[in-house]
Structures are given as C-alpha cells and as structure tokens.
Amino acid sequence: MRLERIGPEHAAAILAEQDAALAGEIVGERWTAQSLEDFLERAARWRADGPIREYAAMTDGTSGVLVGGGGLNLLDPGLERGEAALTYWVLARHRGQGWGHALSAEIVERARAEARIARLVLRIAPANHPSRALARGLGAEPTGAIERHPADGARTVERWVLELRG
C-alpha cells in the first residue's frame, strides 16, 4: 500500500464505490460529482506539510487501485496545540482485508515524524465497531467524551486519543 495526495484523479473511484456507511462517516451524505470535485480540487492545492492533509491509499504498483484514504487536520474545531485529528476510510469492497489498519498506521507514522504533533484525536461514531477496533489496534484509547460530528452537528461521536510522545 502507498499513500499519495488525494486529488481530482480519485473522484471516479470514490463516486463509484461510496456506500451509505462511508457517506455517513465522512460528510453525512453521499458525495455528488460536484461536491466531491470541489473538495478534491481544494485538497490538491493544500501544502504537503500544511495544517490539513488528505491522502489516497493505493494498492502497490504503478497502476494502483484506490482502497481508501485518510488524513491529518491540525485546524479541526476542538483541537488544542499539539493535537491533530486523524481520519481514515476504506471503500466498501476493500473492507475486512487489513487496508484500514495499514493506511491509518502509515498516517500515524507520518504524524510521529512531525514534532508539532504530540497527540492524535480520533472521532468515532459509537456504533462504528470496525473503526473502534482499528483505533484500539493503533493504541488509541476512548476518553469517554462525546462531541458533535465535525461534518454534521446533528450527530455525535466519541473522542479517542493516541499519544505520540512520552
């Protein structure tokens, strides 16, 4: 698996393979072609070392297949200095094959390599048992704090943390 910056070239695969579970976790509804294009064009302009980074997870090889993605966001609401929000997602047909752990572990390693990130914050829907298991596998722990979903204030998520230092 390799991570690359997400951009408009990933739109077709995301649109074709998004499902209700993915849509619910990311933005609360399915992407439209226009809303996804707008997001991916913005993401492609973000600096590689900037405060918001989104990645596409590809199978190995020069003609890799998109399996999912994720990112780091140092500007998310509710974050303190030294914290970054960790996100990850896997397209439906690739779930249950270890891609989620592989891509999230790679993003965690990128965060560990950056001195300004001391703690990762994960926001997980209480009923998202696969994401909770993945977070535990990374070493993250639930805080018990319930917050509003960053993309949809009508839903709630549980705050998890992964300490990177100390």
From TrEMBL:
Descriptive protein name: GNAT family N-acetyltransferase
N-acetyltransferase domain sequence ranges: 1-163
Keywords: Transferase
Source organism of this protein record: Brachybacterium ginsengisoli
Pfam families listed in its UniProt record: Acetyltransf_3
Signal peptide: none
PROSITE patterns, per the entry: GNAT
GO terms for MF: acyltransferase activity, transferring groups other than amino-acyl groups
